[in-house]
Amino acid sequence: MKTKLAILFGGKSDEYTISLYSAAAIIKNVPEELFDVTLVGITREGEWLHYEGSVDKIRDDTWHKENLSPLMLSMGDFKGFIKLKENNETERIPIDCIFPVLHGRNGEDGTIQGMCQMAGIPFVGCDMTSSALCMDKEFTHVVCESAGIKTAPYISVVNSNTLNIKELYDRAIKELSLPMFIKPANGGSSIGISKVRNYDEFESGVMEAFEYDRKIVIEKGIEGFEIGCAVIGNEELIIGEVDEIDTKNDFFDYEEKYSQHNSKIHCPARISPELQTQAKEIALRTYRALGCRGMARIDMFLTPEKEIYLNEVNTIPGLTDLSRYPSMLKKIGIEYKDLIVKLVELAME
């Protein structure tokens, strides 16, 4: 019997567009002989709609222009969605597992995961608590530092009417020094992140980050380059190949993540076998410290002194067939279709 799989895409998030690309790739690769798929599109405004059209319309963001029926996730004994049809009629759509292909706020931060847990339906990826911890960069720092994992020195700041940016700058210079990075505490795809070398850049960076979150994290700039590690599993963990980001820009920003005009991904990373082993060990420790399940991509920095610092954790990493996460797993023999099957199996354990 086929598994009834709901794939959620879109979302009320700044990373809505990235979700469409990831979801399109997954839908295209789902083994039809194993899964009976229900597509649930979430608009930028947060409306949940039952979508039965082509993948191309998801990719070019015209999927919502059709006459689609709203959906509600059942919180009662029935496990699945309730479709609201015309003439006040309803239709029940039973679901065995939910695959939330939602990046960023309201999708990767524990919000959807909490809903799925309340509904009693298994879902792909980390649970509500782990998702929230990994999304919030300050909480990631706190948990991982307590586990003995190196992270960049940082300070966190909540926006308020009494915030004095000049005083904050003086404090950051004293505690962190230049250069530094300013980031929204909750967000992904490098949206709202700035590299800071002076006061003017600091002021504009703070204001930009506050456009995306009421809390920001200011981190000391770590010299070196970024490496990453794909992890999949619940109790028994599989680690993908370590990759490396080679960029000519100040950092691997939003535009470079999805265009790579001035960047290149090397997989495997051009580092020694000893450093690859160390990176994988840190990825495992991070995954376990934060209570991750299902999947996560662990991003790190490697310094010229061969020290590895944790950068951040992505609990729903980019999942296009060219994205880093599936590419790292492909290098160890896990093909894209097999990855989808494995993630659903892990969700239903």
Radius of gyration: 21 Å
Residues in helices, as a percent range? 25-40%
How many domains is the backbone divided into? 3
**Helix and strand succession?**
EHEEHEEEEHHHEHEEHEEEEHEHEEHH
Biggest sheet strand order reads 6-5-4-3-2-1-7
Q: Which stretches are poorly predicted, pLDDT < 50 over at least 5 residues?
A: none
Global mean pLDDT = 93
Number of helices: 11
What proportion strand? 25-35%
Q: What is the total tally of β strands?
A: 17
- The CATH architecture of the largest domain would be 2-Layer Sandwich
Q: How many angstroms separate the termini? A: 17 Å
> What is the CATH superfamily of the largest domain?
ATP-grasp fold, B domain
Q: Can you tell me about this structure?
A:
The chain is of the alpha+beta class and about 350 residues long. The protein folds into three domains: about 5-125, Rossmann fold, CATH 3.40.50.20; about 135-150 and about 225-345, D-amino Acid Aminotransferase, Chain A, domain 1, CATH 3.30.470.20; about 155-220, Dna Ligase, domain 1, CATH 3.30.1490.20. It is built from eleven helices and 17 strands. It has a seven-stranded mixed sheet. Strands 12, 13, 14, 15, 16 and 17 form a six-stranded antiparallel sheet that branches. Strand 16 and strand 17 (about 310-315) form a beta hairpin. It is globular and about 65 Å long. The model has no long low-confidence stretch (mean pLDDT about 95).
